[in-house]
Amino acid sequence: MEERGQALVERLRQEYLDALLVTSLPNVRYLTGFSGTNAILLVTATQRWLFTDFRYADQAAAEAGANAHVVIEATSLWRGLWETLRTLRSIHAVGFESAHLVHRDFERLLKDGTAWNWRPFVDLVERLREKKDPGELDNIREAARVAQAALAHTLPMVRPGMTELQVAGILEHALRDHGSEEHPFTTIVASGERTALPHARAGSRAIAHGDLLLLDFGATVSGYCSDVTRTVVVGQADDRQREVHAAVHAANEAARARVRSGMTGKEADAIARGVLERYGLSEAFGHGLGHGIGLEVHEGPRLSRMSEQVLPEGAVVTIEPGAYLSGWGGIRIEDNVRLSDAGAELLTDLPRQLIELT
Amino acid sequence: MEERGQALVERLRQEYLDALLVTSLPNVRYLTGFSGTNAILLVTATQRWLFTDFRYADQAAAEAGANAHVVIEATSLWRGLWETLRTLRSIHAVGFESAHLVHRDFERLLKDGTAWNWRPFVDLVERLREKKDPGELDNIREAARVAQAALAHTLPMVRPGMTELQVAGILEHALRDHGSEEHPFTTIVASGERTALPHARAGSRAIAHGDLLLLDFGATVSGYCSDVTRTVVVGQADDRQREVHAAVHAANEAARARVRSGMTGKEADAIARGVLERYGLSEAFGHGLGHGIGLEVHEGPRLSRMSEQVLPEGAVVTIEPGAYLSGWGGIRIEDNVRLSDAGAELLTDLPRQLIELT
User: Fold this and answer.
1) Among residues B108, B129, B150, which one ends one of the domains?
2) Which CATH number is B64's domain given?
3) Is A119 on the interface with B (CB under 8 A)?
4) Does position B83 have pLDDT exceeding 90, yes or no?
5) Contacts of B177 in chain A (CB under 8 A)
6) What is the pTM of this model?
7) Residue partners of B49: CB distance under 8 A and separation at least 6
8) For A202, nearest residue in chain B (alpha carbons)
9) B181: closest CA of chain A, how far (Å)
10) What is the value of ipTM here, to two decimals?
């Protein structure tokens, strides 16, 4: 926490900011440890104030008391912010999070904050979060282990005739039993043609013999997420299922072997996309290769056709090539890796060959 | 959907708006049926345009095709918005959702939208959503039924020594088996002293004999949520547990008997608060009596000390008095009701007397 604070203060200095107003809850958690759902944070070069409400009085003191002055507000967190800011000398330029401040709250700055010079920033704290420290990495590693254990428990229990929702129930139950404190996103269990929808939720469809079954899910450990996908066949695979799976598998393998820090998000994406192209499936790969994971399940850096950003050493990202064919189905194989100059260190180690549940 | 559209057009007329830009996803879903996670919606007196991305091409057409022109954008949804707006004549005043537009996107209006007169609104669509139509009510009723069935399945399986996470796993599994398509919020399973934290998540604490056990959870059916809480004793209750439970039970009962549409949120809240006061527990009731439920698990109207809003006929709200004593524990009993002039119609019908799991 100390190191994160220093890195942020250095960023404020570079941007000629006297203070930063943090309104993104994951950013608040990253900088203070506070995990509640209502808070704003003020950071200067030497101090921090965490404003939250009475529901979180005990929790804020326990989680963030060592890292910030905790201020409990009865009515509006903003009241405390203005009071605190008015007591501070030589605070003129204050940054705010342009992507995490709604217009209604921005108007407060214009109305009550005229004494300060407000400057919008995007991704200022998020960029610091991209490189994971050893404690963060341990949490993600454990979240990946929990996700794997849950899948290993679930697959042998899948039977034709079960609904997607029933499979989601088994999987989520196992995630809890293995210690996941929260489902980091809505569990995807899609079967048959529905696997062609990259963002299908589990539904009431009954799984048929011979169906593709795609499971995309994660675990949360001390706030840190894993995000894993496997696609299996319920029964024996047919030729087309084998072919498309082999292509996605090859794309996953190539990306894991060659993605490293120092390349751009676009270059990383191109590795998998090139493989799928050779299989005639580049059109079927409609999303990016991956994204950072951490306190949020989607964070920086992005591995996509659009991203010119250089991937930093220590980033933890998904590698998730897929191929989706409308009316037929889709296959995605998603792993979590830590990036360094030496390559991608695997955090997930589930089988990647085509599993047939027979 | 047709009726909702007409009600909105009437509101635009009242506010002298030629169009409304909708950026809240639940509001987009309410007005079009689209349930994806990336969309903006433009509404005029006669037409609607839903802008989303390629991932949702099929889904948007299926869900919203009858209610809006669906526009699939490859790069930015805003590109489509500007193109569409430029083709429209006599659109001058355009409303936007001040509580659902981040500063970064607000800057787009200032930069690319100079041809229009942008006017911020709060709760414009949300107010329409407060009064539920029969189809919405059916979904919430079913979501309440699913939540009840899941709790009835779970309680007999709780044993001292289980962790809160394990109980959450059983409960969520049952929610899925009974058809819940999504967990509408992070399941709260708190035991012992942790029940005093109104927003405790499930954790690794092992449940001990004699503990209070608080379960706060819900189901989702066709996008609509239920939100239910019961607090039980794992073993035989002691006198203090009985006392506090009786007080909260009485507050719940009084509120269910007397809350109705036409009173203010503050008056509704005062009914339960008055009962707890007589038991010397008004200080221990640190949150409001309830909130609306629907496409979101927290929506209007609010039943709280601060709310001067008159509760509308047809609103569906929670009734959830509680008492929290730091270092001892907390008890909450939460039901879901539909409001009318005649009173509060119960949608949840779980037992409210103190359950002892022996």
Assistant:
1) B129
2) 3.40.350.10
3) no
4) yes
5) 165-166, 169
6) 0.96
7) B41, B42, B68, B69, B71, B80, B81, B84
8) B181
9) 6
10) 0.94
